[in-house]
Design goal:
Distance between the termini: 24 Å
Largest sheet: 11 strands, antiparallel
Number of helices: 4
Shape: globular
Oligomer: single chain
Radius of gyration: 17 Å
Strand content: over 45%
Length: about 190
Protein backbone atom coordinates (compact mmCIF):
# COMPACT_ATOMS: atom_id res chain seq x y z
CA UNK A 1 0.00 0.00 0.00
CA UNK A 2 1.01 3.63 -0.36
CA UNK A 3 -0.38 6.74 1.31
CA UNK A 4 0.70 10.26 0.33
CA UNK A 5 0.68 12.86 3.13
CA UNK A 6 0.10 10.36 5.96
CA UNK A 7 -0.61 11.54 9.52
CA UNK A 8 -0.49 9.48 12.71
CA UNK A 9 -1.39 10.69 16.19
CA UNK A 10 -0.87 8.97 19.53
CA UNK A 11 -2.28 11.22 22.22
CA UNK A 12 -0.65 14.62 21.83
CA UNK A 13 2.27 13.28 19.71
CA UNK A 14 1.75 13.77 15.97
CA UNK A 15 3.85 12.25 13.19
CA UNK A 16 3.41 13.15 9.54
CA UNK A 17 5.06 11.76 6.42
CA UNK A 18 5.21 13.03 2.87
CA UNK A 19 4.79 9.39 1.87
CA UNK A 20 4.05 6.20 3.80
CA UNK A 21 4.27 2.81 2.09
CA UNK A 22 4.36 -0.73 3.28
CA UNK A 23 3.35 -4.30 2.92
CA UNK A 24 1.92 -6.91 5.23
CA UNK A 25 2.02 -10.68 4.96
CA UNK A 26 -0.16 -13.04 6.94
CA UNK A 27 1.08 -16.50 7.90
CA UNK A 28 -1.59 -18.39 9.88
CA UNK A 29 -2.01 -16.40 13.13
CA UNK A 30 1.06 -14.19 12.48
CA UNK A 31 1.41 -10.92 10.61
CA UNK A 32 4.70 -9.49 9.29
CA UNK A 33 4.74 -5.78 8.45
CA UNK A 34 7.26 -3.59 6.64
CA UNK A 35 6.72 0.21 6.61
CA UNK A 36 8.70 3.03 5.01
CA UNK A 37 8.07 6.69 5.80
CA UNK A 38 9.67 9.41 3.67
CA UNK A 39 10.24 12.85 5.25
CA UNK A 40 8.65 11.83 8.54
CA UNK A 41 8.37 14.67 11.05
CA UNK A 42 7.21 14.49 14.62
CA UNK A 43 5.70 17.05 16.97
CA UNK A 44 5.84 16.50 20.72
CA UNK A 45 3.89 19.15 22.70
CA UNK A 46 5.96 21.14 25.24
CA UNK A 47 9.16 19.90 23.57
CA UNK A 48 9.19 20.71 19.87
CA UNK A 49 9.28 19.25 16.40
CA UNK A 50 11.75 16.89 14.79
CA UNK A 51 13.20 17.67 11.37
CA UNK A 52 12.26 15.33 8.50
CA UNK A 53 13.84 11.88 8.40
CA UNK A 54 13.33 8.64 6.51
CA UNK A 55 12.13 5.76 8.69
CA UNK A 56 11.93 2.05 7.88
CA UNK A 57 10.33 -0.49 10.21
CA UNK A 58 10.09 -4.28 10.06
CA UNK A 59 8.00 -6.06 12.72
CA UNK A 60 6.12 -9.31 13.35
CA UNK A 61 2.90 -9.83 15.31
CA UNK A 62 2.93 -13.46 16.49
CA UNK A 63 -0.31 -15.19 17.54
CA UNK A 64 -2.32 -12.00 17.33
CA UNK A 65 -3.65 -11.58 13.81
CA UNK A 66 -7.11 -12.99 14.50
CA UNK A 67 -7.47 -11.17 17.82
CA UNK A 68 -6.56 -7.80 16.31
CA UNK A 69 -7.92 -7.93 12.78
CA UNK A 70 -10.91 -10.28 13.02
CA UNK A 71 -11.97 -9.65 16.64
CA UNK A 72 -10.96 -5.98 16.85
CA UNK A 73 -9.08 -6.36 20.13
CA UNK A 74 -6.77 -3.56 21.34
CA UNK A 75 -2.96 -3.90 21.31
CA UNK A 76 -2.95 -4.25 25.09
CA UNK A 77 -5.58 -7.02 24.99
CA UNK A 78 -3.79 -8.89 22.17
CA UNK A 79 -0.48 -8.83 24.07
CA UNK A 80 -2.13 -9.78 27.37
CA UNK A 81 -3.81 -12.71 25.54
CA UNK A 82 -0.41 -14.14 24.51
CA UNK A 83 0.23 -12.30 21.26
CA UNK A 84 3.75 -10.97 20.76
CA UNK A 85 4.87 -7.92 18.81
CA UNK A 86 8.54 -8.15 17.88
CA UNK A 87 10.43 -5.28 16.30
CA UNK A 88 13.05 -6.79 14.02
CA UNK A 89 14.56 -3.58 12.63
CA UNK A 90 14.12 0.18 12.77
CA UNK A 91 16.24 2.38 10.52
CA UNK A 92 16.24 6.18 10.75
CA UNK A 93 18.13 8.49 8.38
CA UNK A 94 18.21 12.25 8.98
CA UNK A 95 18.64 14.82 6.24
CA UNK A 96 21.78 15.96 8.03
CA UNK A 97 23.51 12.62 7.42
CA UNK A 98 22.83 10.95 10.77
CA UNK A 99 21.67 7.36 10.81
CA UNK A 100 20.43 5.10 13.58
CA UNK A 101 19.76 1.40 13.03
CA UNK A 102 18.21 -0.74 15.74
CA UNK A 103 17.89 -4.46 15.09
CA UNK A 104 17.24 -7.52 17.17
CA UNK A 105 14.28 -9.25 18.71
CA UNK A 106 12.59 -6.50 20.69
CA UNK A 107 9.35 -7.56 22.36
CA UNK A 108 6.62 -5.09 23.25
CA UNK A 109 5.24 -6.16 26.64
CA UNK A 110 1.52 -5.76 27.51
CA UNK A 111 2.32 -2.77 29.77
CA UNK A 112 4.11 -0.95 26.90
CA UNK A 113 7.69 -1.63 28.04
CA UNK A 114 10.32 -2.97 25.62
CA UNK A 115 12.37 -6.10 26.26
CA UNK A 116 15.06 -8.04 24.40
CA UNK A 117 18.55 -8.05 22.87
CA UNK A 118 19.35 -5.15 20.54
CA UNK A 119 22.14 -4.14 18.19
CA UNK A 120 22.41 -0.37 17.84
CA UNK A 121 24.50 1.15 15.06
CA UNK A 122 25.08 4.83 14.32
CA UNK A 123 26.61 6.97 11.60
CA UNK A 124 27.38 10.66 12.19
CA UNK A 125 26.43 10.87 15.89
CA UNK A 126 26.67 14.68 15.80
CA UNK A 127 23.87 14.83 13.23
CA UNK A 128 21.71 12.56 15.40
CA UNK A 129 22.25 14.79 18.46
CA UNK A 130 21.33 17.88 16.43
CA UNK A 131 18.22 16.07 15.15
CA UNK A 132 16.88 15.41 18.68
CA UNK A 133 17.82 18.86 20.06
CA UNK A 134 14.26 20.23 19.70
CA UNK A 135 13.06 17.58 22.19
CA UNK A 136 15.21 19.10 24.91
CA UNK A 137 18.35 18.34 26.88
CA UNK A 138 17.17 14.98 28.26
CA UNK A 139 16.65 13.51 24.76
CA UNK A 140 19.92 15.00 23.59
CA UNK A 141 21.71 13.50 26.62
CA UNK A 142 20.30 10.01 25.93
CA UNK A 143 21.53 10.21 22.32
CA UNK A 144 24.90 11.62 23.44
CA UNK A 145 25.39 8.82 26.00
CA UNK A 146 24.36 6.17 23.50
CA UNK A 147 26.60 7.50 20.73
CA UNK A 148 29.56 7.82 23.13
CA UNK A 149 29.11 4.16 24.08
CA UNK A 150 28.85 3.14 20.42
CA UNK A 151 31.91 5.19 19.44
CA UNK A 152 33.95 3.99 22.43
CA UNK A 153 33.06 0.30 22.44
CA UNK A 154 31.38 -0.34 19.14
CA UNK A 155 32.69 -2.25 16.18
CA UNK A 156 32.78 -0.93 12.62
CA UNK A 157 30.07 -2.51 10.48
CA UNK A 158 28.84 -2.10 6.94
CA UNK A 159 25.05 -1.79 7.02
CA UNK A 160 23.40 -1.48 3.63
CA UNK A 161 26.49 0.19 2.16
CA UNK A 162 27.01 2.64 5.04
CA UNK A 163 29.96 2.38 7.43
CA UNK A 164 28.55 2.50 10.95
CA UNK A 165 29.72 1.67 14.47
CA UNK A 166 27.53 -0.68 16.48
CA UNK A 167 27.16 -2.27 19.90
CA UNK A 168 24.97 -4.97 21.37
CA UNK A 169 22.81 -3.86 24.29
CA UNK A 170 19.81 -5.19 26.18
CA UNK A 171 16.37 -3.72 26.71
CA UNK A 172 15.47 -5.05 30.15
CA UNK A 173 11.81 -4.27 30.91
CA UNK A 174 12.23 -0.71 29.64
CA UNK A 175 15.81 -0.09 30.79
CA UNK A 176 18.49 0.15 28.11
CA UNK A 177 21.61 -1.61 29.46
CA UNK A 178 25.14 -2.18 28.25
CA UNK A 179 26.13 -5.13 30.42
CA UNK A 180 25.35 -4.07 33.96
CA UNK A 181 25.50 -0.34 33.09
CA UNK A 182 22.13 1.34 32.71
CA UNK A 183 22.24 3.79 29.79
CA UNK A 184 18.66 5.07 29.96
CA UNK A 185 15.09 4.29 30.90
CA UNK A 186 12.79 4.06 27.90
CA UNK A 187 9.27 5.17 28.85
CA UNK A 188 6.51 2.63 28.19
CA UNK A 189 4.66 3.03 24.90
CA UNK A 190 1.01 3.96 25.30
CA UNK A 191 -1.12 1.12 23.98
CA UNK A 192 -4.80 1.28 23.07
Amino acid sequence: FGIPQAKLASGPVIATADSLSGEAQRNEADLTVSLTGIDVTGTVPRFGSLAPATVWLFATLTDGYRDMVERGMSWRAVLADGGKLNLRRLDLKTRGGGRLTISGDIELLPDGRLNGPVRIAVADPGALRRWVQPLGPQAEQVVATLTQAVNGMGQARDIDGTQMRGIDVLLDNGSLRLGFIKIADIPPLKLN
